Amino acid sequence: MPAYKYQTADGKTKWYANFYYTDWLGQKKHKCKRGFDTKGAAREYEYSFLDRFSKEPTIQFSSLAKNYLEDMESRLKLTTLKGKRYIIEKKLLPFFGSRRICDIDADLVRRWQNSLIDYRDEKGKPYAETYLHTINSQLSSIFNYAVKYYRLRINPCYIAGSIGESHAAEMNFWTPDQFEHAMLFEQKPSYRIIFKILFYTGAREGEALAITPEDVPREEPVIDINKNYAVVDGVEYFLTPKTKRSIRRVTIPVSLHKEVLEYIDSMQLDPDERIFYFKKGGLYSEFKRMIKRSGDTDIRVHDLRHSHVAMLINMGKPIEEISRRLGHESIKTTWDTYFHLYPGADEELAKDIEMLMQKEAYETESELIIPETQHAIPVPGSPLGPASTGILAAAESHGNEHIRKNNQSIFRKYGIDITTDSIYGYKLETYLDWIAFGDTIVRIISTFKPAEDLRDFLLAMFSDAISSCELQNGSLKDLDVFIVETTIPKYEKIYGISGK
Fold first, then answer.
1. Spatial separation of the C-alpha atoms in residues 7 and 318, rounded to whole Å
2. pTM for the complete prediction?
3. Pairing mode of beta strands 426-427, 422-423
4. In the beta sheet, which residues pair with residue 237?
5. Digits of tens for pLDDT over the chain (500 positions)?
6. What residues does 422 pair with on adjacent strands?
7. Burial code of 73-109, b = ≥16 C-beta within 10 A, e = fewer?
8. Angle, helix 78-87 to helix 61-72, in steps of 10 degrees
9. Which residues pair with residue 18 across a beta bridge?
10. How far is CA 390 from CA 280, 376, 396, 426, 463, in A?
11. How many degrees, rounded to 5, is the angle at CA 413 between CA 412 and CA 419?
12. Element (H or E) spanning 225, and its range?
């Protein structure tokens, strides 16, 4: 791996790496990188670059982690991806980064686990058991990825075993009396209202922060929860909720409904404008200040969701009703999280819950038969089959308006109107309702040259992906996978662009 010396205009000596490599498509490419202070730095750059194209277990962990994150970019929400990146960069790379993955065994993983277990911050506090579990699970996920795609023989985390707990051993929550007492010490109207919404609906923080005036109907005491507010790297987003079942209508006390409407009227907001002006940081800080003033038990904002569940359980509400109200993906999720709050959580109760889970699983399978299918009219020459036309017809009728506006805004910035361009009889925005709309497409459209060809590229790419997905699966449920794994590499070659 040679490196080459050169002189800059001001007379300084620098080094550059100059080499050829074979990309993912089997095409031979040339790479030249300048500006290194030493020969060793230039050679290290070449080694690291080439290492990322390896499909062998000799790949360095740092290169594997980078490839893993890039692969996840189009499959995960931005907030989830940011959390993964933080754990990888802060907790995994410092220990494993320079090692080849084939050299990382169970003994090394155990030593890393012990360092996490023994950690104490400046106040002498260890990592929470749930956080330990999260960090360890992330390492295991990367090794599973290596087993599948890099010929790693076995995941060393399986032998080393897990650490931490998937759920907290203790769950902190307030009773209604404790909550009302704390409210006596909060005088800011906006914070009073959002704390009440969180306690009396069990909504997640991002869901509550995303509420707009049109989400609060005036004719009945309910709140429509249909999106999630997040800030990633300083950019504000309306994202899809955590799960499909997170889109829900939640009843609230009449007095709270009146209070929310009066607050909205006082703010003179547009129908699609957020009713709360602050972000999560402001929410958390004000909550801590209120607790300090009130002297109540110190809990987190998220514990208001747990408090809501505890209140419903104490009221005798059935678990299936609680699960729907929380927007959980399944009753199993609710039971696994809150079973210890149920009085007399004995064998008989567990059997009842198991029957509910089986019933729910059957109903979920039945949902795959979409009623709108019979109303979907096929377009001549379209490759779409009944399952896909049913999915698209349903998406067209019941699309999330806030998510659509967000997508429209992103594409409009680059001259693409997803509300008018159609593919096989359905608008482009309808397809975007049903794919994991991640960073890959945004990165392509923001760097695409020449700009006037962007529309043709997008329509051709989507049409190709839709046809391929339909022919192989008979359904569009994996459309995002086809776009990222199959279509983008193909169109990279045609248009000379890259999705990475």
1. 75
2. 0.56
3. antiparallel
4. 230
5. 578 888 888 888 888 888 777 765 567 777 888 888 898 888 888 777 776 666 668 889 999 999 899 888 877 777 788 889 999 999 999 999 999 999 999 999 999 999 999 999 998 999 988 899 999 999 999 999 888 888 888 899 988 999 988 766 567 889 999 999 999 999 999 999 999 999 999 999 999 999 999 999 999 999 999 888 887 667 777 777 666 778 889 999 999 999 999 999 998 888 889 999 999 999 999 999 999 999 999 999 999 999 999 898 888 888 888 888 998 877 777 877 777 676 555 555 556 556 666 655 555 544 444 444 434 455 666 777 776 777 677 667 766 676 677 777 777 777 778 888 888 788 888 777 655 444 556 666 666 666 667 777 777 777 777 777 666 665 665 666 666 666 666 666 665 655 44
6. 427
7. bbebbbbebeebeebbeebbeebbeeebbeebeeeeb
8. 170
9. 32
10. 38, 6, 10, 12, 18
11. 5
12. strand 222-225
Segments of 267-425 assigned E as strands:
422-423
Q: What ranges in 73-216 are assigned the alpha helix state H? A: 78-87, 93-96, 106-118, 129-149, 156-160, 176-183, 189-201, 205-209
Q: Are 165 and 129 in contact (CB under 8 A)?
A: yes
Q: Concatenated DSSP letters for 185-204?
A: T---HHHHHHHHHHHHH---
User: Do you find a cis peptide bond into 450, omega within 30 degrees of 0?
Assistant: yes
Structure tokens belonging to residue 153: 């023989």
